[in-house]
Structure to design on (1207 residues):
């Protein structure tokens, strides 16, 4: 089998879920005897050292851990929207020609962002494709499934609801409707659609009731995790060590958590924030600087995160946007750490199912403060939550399921 | 002790066997004992099909004894052996009425109810069926003890049977301490005989006395007679089966004859029609056209051999390229006869694996159950059986994965630990597993699994290994569902293939790919069945895998694992030879792989080959012309590779991996022919491998072989060719996968080359060992020494 994996970003320019995911899938495909290539269709930043020119326009090729990678530069789009096709069709045609010469059997879009032109290219060559929907980008231009007033949104309704409740420059009403149509078209022609959680699959099914969505949760390298035998080591003068893992965008809710901590000035707590540099988040930076109990750690590798997580008593996920994925909670579960979770999206559903922590209202710092205060005074309940932690999927399980779906895709073809 | 009775026992032939039974192995002894003891009353608890009981009755008649015989049983089908049900009683009753009713009674009631039928101290010979839990047998023995006369003899059947529901061996051990006058036979499930009373009592049964000088001789005598009896019984059964088959074949033949007659009538009718056509004028007119067609067909047939040869050559060109084929010309010329035979037989090229039986459905595509919608539930219990030894930090994850498997009624995990010194046993117990501990010295892969099976309570057994990890939460469900769906096709056991860990190396990946391609389960689930006794067919179709093997418990107990090596293959082969099918699944898998050192591959290849040739008599082994030539070939290639490794490690080429292998192989076919037989020149970056090769050179290379010639040289060249051919084969796998190299890929490639060399060396030494019977004494000793060294630790 010859597989082309398409992502919108890759190392070394950025490090995130999609690129790790792409590399894991590609290497697993190679181990299984398939040929795998990664195409990065919107690469930004410095090029890797070992690159060579590639036949695609302005593209370079390199090898990452034995996997051939082609980097296509980020092309400025007509509108500030990640789901708009390129104006220049020649790129699409060249890409389609290249795909056919390479005799790929199928394409896997690991994220729909910036990939419309590549979808068109696959379509031109009648290549079946699989699409992973790790967030709600096809349904929501804000990806949060919350409208501009931060109210939950039931779905795009062909773009009409987006035009009514989320019309902000540079979007136009016609553009939002066109976007919704494009997303539906892209998903309709996909052979297999994969969501990372049952919650996400159900949301997509509600919007597209005629389409099937398969659930494959994200997998982890469980060998990286060594849960502590009896919970986090107690630190002197600290009753509770909390953790936060995520970026600082508003929908992640870091500010809510920091405000909650600020309203408990006497509590003997510690908060470890593993995030980016918070350059654009003024309030979060101020709150962290003002509270000596909060430690900000940036630029941690996945292995370092795995080593640090077991030292936490609780992980906090104060999301204020609807997430499709429970990856952070899976990391915490692998490390033996229960969680406090905003009752929203896939993480909320996950917590309700497993009961290994608390569900809290999103955006309400008072409620978070009350909960944290109670747990700090009765930390023994953490042990009961710890016993309920589920075993996450291993990375090999995830890649095996995708391998099976690839075969299913070709079998159906 | 009456020697006439002893001799008469040899000629005893049971006349009244109603049904086959394992007890027949003890009939000669039991009958002799009966004559020695000559009891007034004989009671048998658990007479079942009457094989022992009626033999006793027969001996009463033949010896003219005045014994009264009583058989006690409910005949309700509760015996663990499964011999008994209510229909058996009809047979037993009929036999008793016809032949022994003068002195024999059947008491159809529970044992304790029959107690009231006998006075205390009245029974002189008691036979107890021991194929039940030992607690039950103990209760019966204690209850009937008062009914036994002083000096009475008690026999227990099943004293050498170790099953969950048949554990009288435990009671027997206790009783031997209480009653020193005892004797036991190990065969046919075991028979224990003891005499109530003090050791000092003498009553003519001296053969039960402790330290009786002829005890061993008597035991051996009756063991031999018993085995003979079993064999006779088995042969009679086979005769009966064959007679049955013969009768069925006769019927089939008669039917076929009738069909032939009918067809012949049709043919006669058609012949008449053909005659009319041949006599017609249109037939005469078209005669020249038919002549031309016949001429063309004859030409085509003559060229089929040439066509097949061309086909084979084209296959080789596709595999190795034109240049590669030209370089392999000497190899082809050496094996030209085989090529011609192949071409003449027209071997249809296929990529390995069992051929498809047209009666089987095409391999259907199947998704893992976790990816399919709908509720999944099978109302069955499964016991996972896992041998462990220092399972390490992955064990808790595995146990959590197993205990959270879904879709089954119940799950049990049985751990058989052979002396772990880490936390394995504690972790298993804390997780609620059934833990059986065996001594390290008792461990073998077969024994550990058999012990685990005995301790298991599930209706199905799923054997695993401690470092495998199931994929998905419906993994076991998926295997069981497949087993049950194909039960009507006599599917007996299911294994699933392995999915490499994320850190697996290229060598393992390519081996696994080749292996599953051969088994036909690379891309789909496949059923294997008996297709012939040749080793390829047996291996391709009978392979099961201990990494994950599911089988019904009852069936497993009839077969059990055997041997010290490849016990999974052995089990699968025995099953298919008995008409069952076994499956290898691809739609469900376990995560499992090992990155081994080159030294390991040297030893493992040797052991695998020696085992396979021992298991399969038709395994084709080349004739070894010069064992020292093989050693020289290994040493020489190792020296060349050592030099290559240094250069390779120092370079950072980004050429495509396939091209790198191709050019290297082409170069090595020429350059590595130059002998390099200097000692201490092996530097393959594996200390143990280097030491091994250097030791081979030191011990076994001739003092002077600067110009190797003849058979010595031929073996060196053959070894080189085998090694590079393996790399060619690897390149057909890798060439489709990998592109340009980076540092990660180069490291993998380098290790791959060295491991392939080690595996080739192991195989070559294996062939050398197998052919060593024809060597001179010194070479034979060399082969034996190497065998001991290479087998150690595997």
């Amino acid at each position: 089998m010859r597989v082309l994996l398409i992502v919108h970003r890759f190392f070394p320019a950025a490090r995130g879920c999609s690129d790790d995911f792409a590399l894991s899938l590609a290497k697993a495909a190679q181990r299984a005897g398939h040929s795998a290539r990664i195409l990065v269709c919107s690469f930004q930043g410095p090029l890797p050292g070992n690159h060579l020119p590639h036949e695609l326009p302005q593209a370079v090729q390199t090898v990452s851990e034995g996997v051939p990678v082609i980097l296509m530069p980020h092309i400025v789009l007509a509108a500030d929207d990640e789901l708009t096709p390129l104006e220049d069709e020649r790129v699409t045609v060249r890409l389609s020609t290249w795909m056919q010469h390479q005799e790929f059997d199928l394409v896997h879009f690991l994220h729909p962002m910036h990939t419309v032109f590549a979808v068109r290219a696959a379509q031109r060559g009648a290549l079946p494709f699989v699409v992973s929907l790790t967030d709600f980008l096809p349904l929501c231009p804000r990806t949060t499934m919350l409208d501009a007033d931060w109210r939950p949104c039931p779905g795009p309704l062909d773009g009409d609801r987006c035009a009514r409740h989320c019309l902000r420059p540079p979007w136009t009403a016609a553009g939002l409707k066109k976007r919704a149509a494009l997303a539906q078209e892209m998903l309709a022609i996909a052979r297999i659609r994969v969501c990372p959680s049952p919650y996400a699959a159900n949301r997509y099914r509600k919007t597209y009731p005629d389409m099937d969505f398969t659930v494959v949760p994200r997998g982890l390298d469980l060998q990286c995790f060594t849960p502590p035998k009896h919970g986090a080591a107690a630190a002197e003068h600290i009753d509770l060590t909390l953790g936060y893992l995520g970026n600082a965008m508003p929908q992640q809710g870091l500010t809510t958590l920091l405000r909650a901590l600020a309203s408990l000035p006497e509590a003997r707590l510690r908060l470890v924030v593993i995030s980016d540099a918070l350059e654009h988040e003024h309030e979060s930076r101020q709150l962290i600087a003002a509270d000596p109990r909060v430690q900000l750690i940036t630029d941690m590798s996945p292995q370092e995160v795995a080593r640090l997580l077991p030292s936490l008593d609780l992980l906090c996920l104060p999301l204020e946007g609807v997430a499709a994925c429970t990856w952070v909670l899976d990391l915490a579960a692998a490390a033996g750490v229960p969680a406090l979770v905003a009752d929203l999206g896939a993480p909320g559903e996950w917590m309700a199912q497993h009961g290994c922590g608390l569900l809290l209202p999103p955006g309400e710092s008072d409620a978070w403060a009350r909960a944290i205060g109670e747990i700090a005074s009765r930390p023994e309940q953490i042990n009961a939550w710890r016993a309920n932690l589920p075993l996450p999927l291993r990375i090999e399980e995830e890649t095996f399921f995708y391998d099976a779906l690839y075969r299913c895709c070709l079998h159906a073809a | 002790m009456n020697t006439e009775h002893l001799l008469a026992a040899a000629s005893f032939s049971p006349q009244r066997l109603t049904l086959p039974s394992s007890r027949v192995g003890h009939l000669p002894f039991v009958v002799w004992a009966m004559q020695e003891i000559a009891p007034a009353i004989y009671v048998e608890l658990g007479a079942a099909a009457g094989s022992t009981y009626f033999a006793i009755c027969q001996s009463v008649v033949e010896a003219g004894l005045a014994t009264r015989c009583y058989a006690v049983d409910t005949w309700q089908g509760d015996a663990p052996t499964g011999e008994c049900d209510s229909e058996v009683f009809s047979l037993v009753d009929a036999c008793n009425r016809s032949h022994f009713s003068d002195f024999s009674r059947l008491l159809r009631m529970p044992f304790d109810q029959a107690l009231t039928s006998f006075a205390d101290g009245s029974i002189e010979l008691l036979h107890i069926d021991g194929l039940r839990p030992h607690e039950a047998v103990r209760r019966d023995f204690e209850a009937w003890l008062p009914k036994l006369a002083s000096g009475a003899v008690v026999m227990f059947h099943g004293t050498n049977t170790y099953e969950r529901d048949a554990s009288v061996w435990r009671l027997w051990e206790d009783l031997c301490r209480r009653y020193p006058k005892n004797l036991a036979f190990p065969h046919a499930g075991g028979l224990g005989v003891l005499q109530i009373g003090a050791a000092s009592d003498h009553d003519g049964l001296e053969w039960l006395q402790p330290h009786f000088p002829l005890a061993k001789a008597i035991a051996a005598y009756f063991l031999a007679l018993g085995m003979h009896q079993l064999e006779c019984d088995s042969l009679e059964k086979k005769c009966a089966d064959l007679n049955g088959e013969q009768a069925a074949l006769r019927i089939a033949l008669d039917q076929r004859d009738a069909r032939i007659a009918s067809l012949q009538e049709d043919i006669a009718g058609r012949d008449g029609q053909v005659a009319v056509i041949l006599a017609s004028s249109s037939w005469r007119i078209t005669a020249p056209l038919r002549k031309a067609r016949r001429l063309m067909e004859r030409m085509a047939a003559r060229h089929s051999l040439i066509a097949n040869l061309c086909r084979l050559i084209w296959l080789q060109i596709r595999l190795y390229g034109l240049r590669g084929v030209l370089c392999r010309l000497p190899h082809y010329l050496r094996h030209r006869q085989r090529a011609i035979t192949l071409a003449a037989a027209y071997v249809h090229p296929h990529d390995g694996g069992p051929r498809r039986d047209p009666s089987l459905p095409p391999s259907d595509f199947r998704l893992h159950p976790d990816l399919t919608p709908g509720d999944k539930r099978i109302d069955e219990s499964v016991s996972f059986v896992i041998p462990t030894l220092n399972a390490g930090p992955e064990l808790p994850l595995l146990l959590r994965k197993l205990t959270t498997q879904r879709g089954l009624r119940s799950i049990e995990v049985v751990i058989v630990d052979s002396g772990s010194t880490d936390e394995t046993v504690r972790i298993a117990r804390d997780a609620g597993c059934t833990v059986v501990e065996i001594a390290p010295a008792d461990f073998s892969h077969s024994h550990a699994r058999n012990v685990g099976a005995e301790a298991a309570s599930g209706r199905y057994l799923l054997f695993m290994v401690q470092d495998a990890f199931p994929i998905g939460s419906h993994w076991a469900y998926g295997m069981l569902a497949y087993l049950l769906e194909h039960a009507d096709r006599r599917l007996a056991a299911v294994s699933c293939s392995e999915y490499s860990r994320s850190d697996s190396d290229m060598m393992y990946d390519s081996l696994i790919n080749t292996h599953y391609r051969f088994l036909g389960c690379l891309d789909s689930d496949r059923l294997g069945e008996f297709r012939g006794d040749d080793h390829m067919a047996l291996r391709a179709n009978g392979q099961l895998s201990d990494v994950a093997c599911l089988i019904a418990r009852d069936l497993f107990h009839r077969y059990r694992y055997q041997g010290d090596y490849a016990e999974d293959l052995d089990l699968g082969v025995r099953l298919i030879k008995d008409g069952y099918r076994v499956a290898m699944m691809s739609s469900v898998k376990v995560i499992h792989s090992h990155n081994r050192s080159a030294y390991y591959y040297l030893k493992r290849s040797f052991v695998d080959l020696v085992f396979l040739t021992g298991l399969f008599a038709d395994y084709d082994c080349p004739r070894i012309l010069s064992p020292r030539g093989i050693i020289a070939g290994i040493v020489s290639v190792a020296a060349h590779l050592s030099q290559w490794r240094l250069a390779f490690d120092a370079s950072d080429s980004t050429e495509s991996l396939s091209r790198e292998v191709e050019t290297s192989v082409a170069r090595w076919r020429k350059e590595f022919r130059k002998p390099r037989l200097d000692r201490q020149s092996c530097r393959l970056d594996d200390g143990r491998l280097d030491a091994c090769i250097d030791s081979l050179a030191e011990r076994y290379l001739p003092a002077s072989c600067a110009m190797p010639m003849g058979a010595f040289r031929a073996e060196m060249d053959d070894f080189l060719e085998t090694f590079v051919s393996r790399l060619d084969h690897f390149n057909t796998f890798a060439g489709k996968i990998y592109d340009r190299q980076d540092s990660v890929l180069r490291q993998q490639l380098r290790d791959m080359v060295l491991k392939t060399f080690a595996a080739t060396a192991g195989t070559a030494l294996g062939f050398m060992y197998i052919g060593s019977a024809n060597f001179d004494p010194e070479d034979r000793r060399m082969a034996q020494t190497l065998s001991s060294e290479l087998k150690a630790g595997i």
The CA atoms of residues 224 and 304 of chain A lie 9 Å apart. The longest helix of chain A spans residues 395-412. The interface with chain B takes residues 24, 27-28, 30-37, 50, 61, 63-66, 68, 214, 216, 221-223, 226, 390-391, 394-397, 399-401, 404-405, 407-408, 411 of chain A (CB under 8 Å).
